[in-house]
Specification:
Chain lengths: 246, 278
């Protein structure tokens, strides 16, 4: 509790001059990034731009070659309150696809009590599916269960890596509406996506990465500053302008 | 009256099996194995690691050959060999230059090859190799039970203690790591528990068939279970039926125990699958 008070004014995530590579190939170079409490941040970049790598560095799953990572005001190697961070990877489960596991069992993995399980399922409107098998649910329902699993640990920061891949348009809409509600209830969210239209519409800060940090702007500044072109190239300019709701 | 006499005759005849001390030992070992094999197998199948059980089975045969060559209890050498390779398997999973499945296939053949070479070197082996390959009801000794019972209990307690963490890793390894689960340690622990289950099962099931007892009852249970926990309990139930019926069949029909047990588990699977899917 004392530690929490001590570090409460710090950004939840603080990256200083992060560089990372696989062998000779540089993936990230000199990335500086802060995620402040209460932000809804979209991390944009083309395929292979290093955005998932950046997320894994924040989570301590990868160690940068250079630079420092601080979580909740503490160097990552001294950070131990991992329950404060909820993470939904791109492939949210590796379990054998037909293996029987219930919604309740999945959410219980991160929960300290059955009350927390029920609360998390209530938040994502999946309480009535508690005893259903996960593989019998639709893609959109499964995604809600994965969010409930992350919420069951009472996180303050939620990181999602391409969460809408393979989900139909209607479920995507519901999914973003759920994230919006969670954000309004005080949760800090970092959303990694390659879908510029969704990011521009949903988040309140955008970070563009393409090996280096291209921009850290508001959605309005992103559109006005033509950052899409800088990120993806001029030839795809018309696509974003036609679909943008910003 | 005639019916009662017939029933009484059958029961008496069936119970006769327990007047043989070697059969009592086989049943004790069989029940322990019948519990721990699907207990570990559930986590292996859920994580698509089914081939690991077969690989360690083949490696354990090399361990047996070493034991016979050095005149040490072959269960001990099989245990050591399979634990060492189990740790190696875990390391190989993280190797980026060779796929885990290919490495397992190579280790599987390598284990068998090493066993055959060692057996060839010591032509004077005065043992029934067939029983180590396919299991036997007559080979379980009192000394074996001194390993099988405590190690079996240890496996059950370990899984009970780390159940939530094993489930967490099976569901999402990266997510588990982020939430503070000691993934590396628990992955090695699961591999070591698999090695223990495999080594303890050699006497009854045989090193070439042990993989089946870790996988088939689990697959059968997953057809009908309505939760992970239920799948775990049902897999132990199907496994125990297979082992007990297999031991009876082995005794009365003079069949290799491993073959009988695995065939019965396959019959149960086929029955459950047909009832569920037709």
């Amino acid at each position: 509790m004392h530690n929490e008070l001590e570090h409460k004014d710090h950004p939840l995530v603080c990256l200083h001059e992060i560089s990372f590579g696989y062998g000779e190939q540089a993936v990230l170079e000199d990335i500086d990034l802060h995620v402040e409490k209460g932000e809804y941040l979209g991390l944009l970049g083309p395929n292979g731009s290093g955005k998932s790598t950046l997320l894994k560095i924040i989570l301590g799953l990868l160690t940068p070659e250079k630079g420092k990572v601080e979580l909740f005001g503490k160097p990552i190697n001294k950070f131990s309150n991992w329950h404060k961070i909820g993470y939904i990877p791109q492939k949210a489960t590796q379990i054998e696809s037909r293996f029987p596991i219930t919604v309740k069992e999945v959410v219980s993995i991160n929960a300290r009590s059955q009350t927390k399980v029920a609360e998390a399922l209530e938040k994502v409107d999946m309480l009535s599916f508690s005893n259903n098998l996960v593989h019998e649910l639709s893609g959109g329902q499964q995604q809600r269960v994965f969010i409930a699993k992350a919420l069951a640990g009472d996180p303050q920061l939620l990181l999602l890596d391409e969460p809408t891949v393979g989900i139909d348009a209607n479920s995507q809409k519901d999914f973003y509406s759920l994230l919006d509600t969670l954000h309004k209830s005080g949760l800090t969210i970092v959303l990694v996506s390659h879908d510029t239209e969704d990011i521009v519409r949903e988040v309140n800060r955008i970070v563009c990465v393409n090996k280096r940090l291209v921009c850290h702007v508001t959605p309005k500044e992103f559109v006005a500053g033509n950052y899409y072109d800088k990120l993806y190239g001029e030839d795809r300019k018309t696509i974003i302008h036609r679909h943008s709701h910003a | 009256m005639e019916k009662t006499e017939k029933l009484s005759f059958i029961v008496t005849h069936m119970l006769e099996i327990f007047t043989y001390s070697f059969m009592v030992r086989a049943f004790i070992a069989g029940i322990v194995i019948g519990c721990i094999a699907p207990l570990i197998g559930t986590f292996l199948v859920a994580r698509r690691f089914s081939l690991i059980a077969d690989t360690l089975g083949h490696i354990s045969l090399a361990g047996i050959a070493i034991g016979l060559l050095l005149n040490i209890n072959p269960i001990i050498t099989a245990l050591i060999a399979s634990i060492l390779v189990a740790i190696l398997v875990d390391r190989i999973r993280h190797n980026k230059y060779i796929s885990g499945e290919t490495a397992l296939a190579m280790l599987l053949s390598g284990g068998l090859a090493l066993a055959i070479v060692l057996i060839g070197l010591a032509r004077g082996f005065n043992v029934d190799l067939f029983s180590y390959l396919f299991g036997s009801i007559t080979t379980v000794t009192d000394t074996d039970l001194l390993f099988i019972i405590p190690l079996g209990i240890l496996v059950v307690i370990t899984v009970a203690v780390f159940y939530k963490q094993f489930l967490s890793i099976a569901f999402d390894e990266e997510g588990a790591q982020v939430s503070g689960v000691k993934v590396n340690f628990l992955n090695i622990l699961l591999m070591v528990l698999t090695a223990v289950a495999v080594s303890l099962s050699i006497r009854i099931i045989g090193s070439l068939l042990i993989g089946a007892l870790l996988v088939i009852p689990v697959t059968t249970a997953s057809q009908v279970a309505r939760s992970f926990k239920q799948s775990l309990i049902l897999s132990i139930f199907f496994s125990l039926i297979s082992v007990i019926a297999g031991l009876f069949a082995s005794f009365y029909l003079n069949l290799p125990a491993g073959g009988a047990i695995v065939l019965i588990s396959l019959i149960i699977f086929s029955f459950v699958y047909l009832v569920k899917n037709t």
